Amino acid sequence: MAQTAPAPPRGQPRPGGRDRDARPGPATAPAVWRELLLIVVFYTGYTLTRLVLVSDGTAPAFRHAEQILRFERFLGIDVELGLNQTLLHVPWLARTANVFYATAHFVITIAVVVWVWRCRPAEYRWLRTSLITATAVALLGFWLYPLAPPRFLHAEGFVDPVTALHSLGLYASDASGTLTNQYAAMPSMHAGWALWCGFVVARLASRRWVRVAALLYPATTLFVILSTANHYVLDAVVGMGLIGASLGLAWLAYHRCPARWSGLPGRALARLRQQHASAPGTPRESSAA
User: Fold this and answer.
1) What subcellular compartments does it reside in (predicted)?
2) Which among 54, 120, 172, 289 counts the fewest CB atoms within 10 Å?
3) What is the helix (H) or strand (E) element at residue 235, kind and residue range?
């Protein structure tokens, strides 16, 4: 009669078999509570930028707006006013753009983050880190360089389509305007996050039509943020450049030095599992010689 091999110690994988706790899947991504904590930290930082701005007044934000417009006119890229006036001639499109600006920025970004966490966990950490890094730098930009959006520059001919059409929008009510930093235009994280979402989905999705839609999303967002007079061209350029740089740095950090970044949490978890697997009352080996 063949003898049955003794069972391995608790918490150790069976020889030639798969450890149930080591199976690939969403469990290989960071814990949900850790990711939610990061969101809370960065939202708090975003809110604080508004408090600092209000305490200093809004005059610097309007001075910076004049600087941006002069520089764009010098470069010949000041297309915001023309797009804004064109949009207002198509009311249904303007209302759609207002809703898109208010919702897509958050809904699509969160959806892409959750999708990567659940379906592409091996790619999650470096992509999440790139998004967090870019957003952290953007928060610093909001604080150091407050900028009034074009829709506040009525003397230049800009019109806020939300106000003009009494439309739904991000700043349609006084409450929403109070809870957001309306002078956080530089850099444009609407443009930056849209580029991040487009890049991630185009890189990881398996269906061609999904990849095509992903590439169209940043272009659509760019049109919306300019035509609704919420951002300048330079805002979008800086926001997209910031995301591009963050993606490159995060990829290098996680792929050229994987043991330093992604390996440390795994080794720490393995040590915790070994400690947890030790039976109570089991004598420990003495470390003394």
Assistant:
1) Membrane
2) 289
3) helix 233-256
Q: What is the chain's percent helix, strand, coil content, to nearest 5?
A: 70, 0, 30
Q: How far apart (Å, rounded) are the C-alpha atoms in residues 179 and 92?
A: 27
- Per-residue pLDDT tens over the stretch 119-135: 888 888 899 989 989 98
CA dist., res. 56 & res. 58, Å (int):
7
Residue 70 to residues 145, 188, 228, Cα–Cα distance (Å): 16, 18, 20
Q: Does residue 153 contact residue 160 with C-beta atoms inside 8 Å?
A: no
Give buried/exposed letters for 107-129 (b at 16+ CB in 10 A, else e). Answer: ebbeebbebbbeebbebbbbbbb
Does 60 score more than 70 pLDDT?
Answer: yes
User: Mind giving me the DSSP string for 7-66?
Assistant: PPPTTSPPTTS--GGG-SSGGGSPPHHHHHHHHHHHHHHHHHHHHHHHHH-SHHHHHHHH
